[in-house]
Amino acid sequence: MDRAAEPDSSFARYQDLQMLDFVFAHFSGIFLASSSFFLLALLLHALAGAYSRRGGKKGPSGFSPTAFRPFELYPAALLPAFLAGLVWAVAMVAWFVANQRLTSLAVTFPIITATPGLVASLWGVVVFGEIRGRRNLGVLAAAFGLTATSCGLIAASR
């Protein structure tokens, strides 16, 4: 998309595309992949159940799902998981828009991908208390400083 605006570009036919034109394809791919992984997990769950009901005997193909432990599905987790997916979807749309509006992908992509790690680390320190100790907090502060410096240099490179 960045090169479509260049004169004499072979990408000129993509000049009118907007980042939101890619949202449906992006979300469809994620939906298909996550659904496939979930169906695979259900299949392995069923095989592990059949294996344990047969007294642990291997099937005709020699498949032994002892490494796959059966899991439980919790219906109470479905609504929070769905709401988390909606929040993620809104964030992804905002990410697409930010990548298009700020400058170019070469500048915005590193910045937009670095900041969620900063936010998650802050949640880990402030809310969950995952990082403790003076040395660990010092390492985290150094990582914050390097990330902020690199984001600033990337933004200034435009």
Can you offer a commentary on this structure?
By secondary structure, this protein is mostly helical. The protein has a domain at 1-75. It has 4 helices and no strands. It has helices spanning 23-53, 78-101, 105-126, 134-156. The chain crosses the membrane at residues 23-52, 73-98, 104-125, 137-156. It is found in: Membrane. Keywords: Membrane, Sugar transport, Transmembrane, Transmembrane helix, Transport.
Topology:
Layout: H1 23-53, H2 78-101, H3 105-126, H4 134-156
GO molecular function: carbohydrate transmembrane transporter activity
Subcellular location: Membrane
Membrane topology: Multi-pass membrane protein
Which terms summarize this structure?
158 residues, mainly alpha, flat
* Tally of separate helices: 4
Indicate the low-confidence ranges by residue numbers. none
Helix content: 55-70%
> What is the first-to-last residue Cα distance?
17 Å
In brief, what are we looking at here?
With 158 residues, this protein is mainly α. The chain is built from 4 helices and no strands. The two termini are 17 Å apart.
